[in-house]
Amino acid sequence: MRKYYLLLITLVSITNHAQIKGTVSDEKGNPLPFVTVFQEETYNGTTSNEAGKYELNLKKTGKQTVVFQFLGFKTQRITIQKDKLPYSFDVKMIEESFSLNEVVINTKINPAIAIIKNAIASKKENTQKTARFNADFYSRGIFKLKNAPKKIFGQKIGDMNGSLDSTGTGIISLSETFSKITFEKPNNLKEVVTASKVSGRDNGYSYNTARSSFYDFYDNTIDFGVNMISPIANNAFNYYKYKLESTFYDANNQIINKIKVTAKRDSEPVFEGYIYIVEDSWAIYAVDLDIKGYRMKEEFVDVMTLKQNFSYNKSNKIWAKNTQSLDITAGAFGIKFNGKYTYVYSNYEFVNSFAKKTFTNEITSVEINSNKKDSIFWNSTRPIPLTIEESSDYIRKDSIYKVRNSKKYLDSIDAKGNKFKIMKLLTGYTYRNSTEKNSFSYEGLLNLGSLSFNTVQGYNFDSGFRYTNWKNQEKKGIYTSISTKLNYGFAEDRLRVTGQFIHRFNNQNYATVYLTGGSSVKQFNPNEPISKVINTISSLAFKNNFMKLYNLESAAIGYSQDVVNGVNLNGKIEYQQRKPLFNNTDFSFFNKNDLYTSNNPLAPDDFITPAFEKHHLMKATLNAKINFGNKYSSRPDGKFNIRNEKYPTLYLGYEKGFAANEKKYEFDHVNARLTYDLKLENKGTLGMNLKAGKFLNAENISFVDYKHFNGNQTHIGQTERYLNVFNLLPYYSNSTNTRYFEAHAEYNDEGYIMNKIPLLNTLKSTLILGAHTLSTPNIKPYTEFTVGLDNLGFGKFKMLRVDYVRSYQNGFQGDGVVFGLKFLDILE
């Protein structure tokens, strides 16, 4: 009985109050998805769903004409009498009888070339017609998973809140959004979200906003992570081959040219499929294009299909996009992932200009009650009817959400998970109170990720305890975390303990206070240029001792928050006691007759003299991060910053050492850093990182407080980019207590060059060119030049990079090869 009841509710929920509705199918009765349906002479339209169902609210009185438009089929115009509404009408679309111009007979002339040239020449005129507008916007996003395993890396994934069935298949995300948008090319946007719905979360807000929906083929490139070349870009003939497959007449009796576009070179960032161009105006009528994952350097994506349909208004003679869909197919390890975004633009109002203060740094704002709309609103307003699968998902997930968030259910789940077993002393244990939203956890003794080796501690491992409270995090952004970390070194036979308290006050300016303290081992360079994993392998396999450590006893209090849009301040005051450490082990797997260097970075062969004397002082730091032109999205559940990629990010810092046990350890240090990525359209990206600083009254400060630079003597790289490291520089060779300047620049061609080189283009890799320089007083400047290949690997796994590096300091210094293992950054 319950199944029949659910089916009844499902059928009722997909029956809304549209004035005209029905099913669109072909002549054989097969439903046609994504058929454009719009009211003639208006920008009021919609599209059919996957089952061919459509719904349209008519907004004018009297006799109206509704247009049904679908690529490959004849456009149909149906006359509706408004006083007879509501009106049900099923439409059978008839396949188009295509024709070709007689010029095709001449095999020496490709008629598609002339059409594309005209479309390119008319881009400016056509894009200006739709450069400024107000419109209504609707979006729906759905993601499905197929064949998901029971476990991933040993961790059970469960049914994902009721999303998956016993075969690991189901809808894992479904959401919808209504909004009012104001847009001005190229990228001024003001969006107000008026309605938002998320399956399985009755208080959720959808992320399907208009900001990510503007794919404009009148632009030379379209951003899909890499800049894809438009089929009508100014330089499109360098990338595409064209074929005029057919011509046909649309509902306005205008000739439409169907052009097939294919890649000249397989590895280039290009689309494949069809673009439809209107004769005489040379405007875009529709696009139906595929994007292969490897062409946009997204190896786990198989293909993305982008479709756009445009409607024509005779009064203003403007072709405007009314529907768009983006289908995604991806997968790995036998798991298949399918996603679909569907967008509807309606009620356009094109204007010549906007008032000066129309656009601000707030791109999107979400009305506070936008997630409280009831089913009556959605059923009467939604332009694309839900499929039975989607409607069932809403009903089922909402029911599951209520059950699984009830106190009775949460308590039962907690009772099961909170049972203590003796093995949890080794593996770790968590006690959770889901109703009160807090937890207490113990990390255990078998956390292999915490096990490492260094010459001071020998083998050492971490464990710890953590209490977390997130009761008000979802609505107010408030959470509290209290944790302690225990580290034991076997060769040193010493246990060190640190503690941390963090409390965030809100999710608007993200005001956060934190307290830290305890005993720990620290690298002299606080940036930790050599990771525990790399140092462990380097020491045990090659008997290298690159990680230089000292003992730190400390207590600190800090505070951070966004003070104005785009500006974050972080201040801290800390007491520190520093003590030198010495090697306590000579163990290694290989090269047992070799000796480790000492723990003194200034004297690697001196095993007696420490790098500094034991001392203490107070330190105060104040840091500012400035994102110029910062944009943001405002939602009832928080403010979300969106960095403006047109501008750089500036970091300013001041550090003061005071109240030391000896005056000589006190100092002042001012510093600045500027980072920027210069986008070169489809020609790649130039990344830059510039740093400068100066010490004052710091002639005799401890080596701990020197400015240390990120070197690398392991020939292993573990980050995506090398914009913060010198890959052949010894770790502490250029440390300074005076002034310094360093610059890093790295050009990634994103395939622009590599895609055109025969044989090498089969690697589907990217070319990296780098230049790095460091200047300090009394030492000749250090410089590195690099050339390498990124995005290397096997199959879908492109996690490798190889660089040749040559360094100079007072002439040629040395050269070497750096092997980038980017997955190590994930492990850390």
Automatic annotation (TrEMBL):
It comes from the Bacteria. Residues 1-18 form the signal peptide. InterPro entries: CarboxyPept-like_regulatory, DUF5686. Keywords: Signal. SUPFAM superfamilies: Carboxypeptidase regulatory domain-like (SSF49464). The keyword Signal applies. This is Carboxypeptidase-like regulatory domain-containing protein.
